[in-house]
Specification:
2 domains; globular; Rossmann fold; 413 residues; alpha/beta; 5-stranded parallel beta sheet
Length: 413
Amino acid sequence: MVGLGYVGLPLAVAFAEADVDVIGVDVSARVVERLRRGESAIEDVPDERLAPLVRGGRLRATSDYEELVECDAIVICVPTPLANQREPDLSYIDSAARALARILRRGQLVVLESTTYPGTTRERLLPVLEESGLAAGKDFHLAFSPERIDPGRTDHTIATTPKVVGGLTDACRERALELYGLICRELVPVSSPEVAELAKLLENVFRSVNIALVNELAMLTDRMGIDIWEVIDAAATKPFGFMRFEPGPGMGGHCLPVDPFYLAFKAREFDFPTEFVELAGKINQAQPHFCVDLIARALNDVERPVKGSRVLLLGVSYKAGVGDLRESPALKIARQLRDLGARVAYHDPHVPSVAELDLESVPLDEGLRDCDVACVVTAHPEVDYERVVASAPLVVDLRGVTRGIKASNLVRL
């Protein structure tokens, strides 16, 4: 397993629990040392699940690619972030490919799981791996199988989520299906890596577009004086032709804020502007600005300027129930409020500290007592929101969790 983060470590553990010997490679010495002690930095993999696998020798961590020579299959799970101009940064894939080319042997299977644009496996990964002198589809097998991990979920796991697999050749696909058949109950073979790569982008672009739609409607209903949550509740009663999506402070995580731009980048190669996809990305990127404006207007209505006001953010992770800060809109909101002169604090039971904001989570009672406005940014289930509304002088709810509560100090998105 190359990469032992949010994707690689759960996958490594799933294979190890299926009685497969797993070697995990990570460039971070700190990650490797923690794993060797049986300590996990991933919420979905508790220490009590990881430690027995490490102690029993079923799963071991290293920074040395040479140890992968003995493996039958190598799965690449490295990050694919965006560069400064919102173009794909495939440097982690390139680095892994170069390292693997030096140790690749006949008969091995290489699978890329990192989300990327169609053509990456064939056009980017394949040529580097073949610098080994081995030919893909003949001397070794190559496939793409997109990760579908949703941090914090227990209803859809690696085992129960259908696994899409596309091979460079039919033989490559069959070899990859054999691998994932060890841990996945349902396999979805497709004709090529490109189909599998684009399927993953479609899944996330679908969500991005629909979230952008309701976010834009939330901005419109704010001006119209209509409750967007009541509108969504009413529309959701239709038993066909409608899928519920809800507005919020913006998108976060490792996929939704990034994947639409991967597709747009590749489409430009074919002189095809993906205007619909890019517009959705722009709307979602702008949503934190709208939420800051909503907070400012709420303070203005009680005759308080943003400058000097004490703002308590309730939740800073990108989604409820987890401590993942990747692309979290809460961080953008915090920085914008600070730029306006606000004094920002936060409470999050899953995030003890945020280094880039130089803040630590404050106890809820203390935060509510000391704030001028409490803003629900991430609706963690551990928080009693009736108590929040009863205790804070002003509450701005960006997640709709206070529906059903009527109070003069409450403002909802």
